[in-house]
Amino acid sequence: MNERYEVWRERVEKELGSADFEQELVNEVPAGVPGGLRVEPLYAPDHPSPQPPIALGLPGQPPYTRGGRLPRARDEAAGGASWSCCSRYVNRDLAEFNREIVADLTGGIDCLWLEVSAAPVGQGQTGQGQVEPGPTGRRTPIATIGDLDRLLSGVLPQAITTIFDGGADVLPAAALLLAWLDEHGFDPADLDLRFAADPLGSLAQEGRLPATLAEIDAEAAALACYCDSSLPRSRALTVSTLPYHDGGAHPAQELACGMATLLHYLRLLTENGLSLASAARQIELRVAVDQDLFVEISKLRALRTLWSKVLAACGDPAPPAPFVHAVASRRTLSRRARWMNLLRGTGEVVAAVVAGAERITNVGYEEAFANPSERSRRIARNTHTILAEESHLGEIADPAGGSYYVEVLSDRIARDAWARLQEIERRGGMAECLRAGFIQEEVAKSWEGRLGAIARRRQVMTGVSEFAQLDEEPIDRSGKETATATKKASAEGETPAEIDLPANPDRRLASLVTAARAGASLTELAGTLPRGEPQTAKAIASRRDAQPYERLRDAADKLARAGRRPSVFLACLGPLAEHKDRSSFARRAFAAGGLAAVEGSIVEETEPQGVAARLAGEFARSGAAVVAICGSDAAYALHLPSLVAALGEAGAQRIVLVAKPDLEEDSRRRAAIDHFLHPGCDLLELLADSLQGCEAGATPPRTAEES
Questions:
Q1: For the whole model, what pTM was predicted?
Q2: Where are the domains of the chain?
Q3: How far apart are CA 199 and CA 30, in angstroms?
Q4: How far apart are CA 308 and CA 302, in angstroms?
């Protein structure tokens, strides 16, 4: 260990006194998650490290840690961001969908991310009771090229990038788009098309493929070979870490799953005749960006390092630069305090820009609970414009480079992810690990650790678990279904002739395009492909950090609508100066679960029985069922036994002491305290039990003997 670091640490430990250096100054990110990153208080050139750092290289050069490209020169006259600004679309009426697309393109978006399916889908998976119904992630039902006419009316494909994501229906969806382009006289070879084929990602997210994995892989490989030979600007496959991120994975897990998926696709494409370099050029990387700025910057830098390392291990020491599509996290969105989603999304876009992402998708602040409104979409796209035109982000190569903190985090994330990738490979690869449930179990463990940190507010969500606003009305605006519009469009299409499907997989795409031009629907195109039994696996549940608190708020609102707003009586001991810190803390904590605080008056008396009688009387008149006792440690020692007994007799269903449980042991043993409220307590458990106490409000009061 470096001598200067040792001197610094000795001085810090001297200042800390009896406090432990590790407990006070070293954190884990994400908090509470097994295998999280160790974040120390100081990073410097002489920071001790057990291993030499990974070679960084220069921006635009292998291993691309410092960026896959130099910043694009910005046209001062035309303006615009130096990254591609992408907008993602959810299930809507096709005409309304088209209005959104035109508005986005007019407002500065240069990439459309269209998620389509052959039939209307439901509200989402229901694995493990964790997936939340909602419009986000639902695919738009598309039947024929007539639907694409409605959807893309007024769009000039040659001026933008089009991500046409058909999910597991890789080849039929591509055929439908190519038929539409041919119908309108566009040459696909001149266009920037991304077909986003990701069979393993679809299996992880949905738990099902419409055929065996080998068959869907073969369709993806055929599309990649066609793109390589005929569509020089297009890419066929995407490695997406979104299913794992949304399930609760931490950064190293996300990247390990992504790199294991990359290996699967590289093997697939090289086995189907592509060179390693050509196979790499057919794959782009899609990664979620969370709200922890420096960790996410480091994660994207580590992602590029791992890309280079994987390709070097496969035999390409000078691989092409990866194309990184960063997507603002849906896991960090909340239905409550929805305006905070603006700040979260902005921070996530900043992290993606600083980390050098080639394409960035922001999220609308309403996407946790509804189809985004025009205002929501406008703010999301204007975030790109403000960061580019006013902040001039993206005009500097690797702005985070040289930060010792970021460099160390990048290195540690890359090494951890590499070790996890090797474990996946030892177990047979990504496909086998998904079939066996290994990936799902690892992600679930990470989520449990994250959930514990959320419960104890080591992972704070402003406006949700901290500084919640009880008077904010939740919005419940469901999106419009498009099934009717799709059925109508399908009926208008011509009845297709029988599809003549060649035995050679490489020639099937042309036959599907011909059939689509003749009027075949996406369902019919998929039905002609030789497919066996569906491939199944356990789906990775999609989760959001705010959900546990939102469920409590929903339960509290339900009671309020029935005429009983859940409330907690704050039994404050002594003058304001002696209880303000704890009473304010309690007020904020109970608001996170939807409980309103009713504070008692300042009690001037000092005699324990008189204080107890006064506060118990005020509690009985307050209408609350739960009481939180707030005061100094000295006041607890004097008043706790008599006060708890009086509150029990007055009908308190739950009694909470705002203090750590190890304070005043003798008094605590004589008192019936249901919960101790303090930083680090399991707030979710406390709030859930308090709500049960509010629901039981009319049960007989406890006697002094029972207390």
A1: 0.90
A2: 3-39, 84-467, 547-695
A3: 29
A4: 10
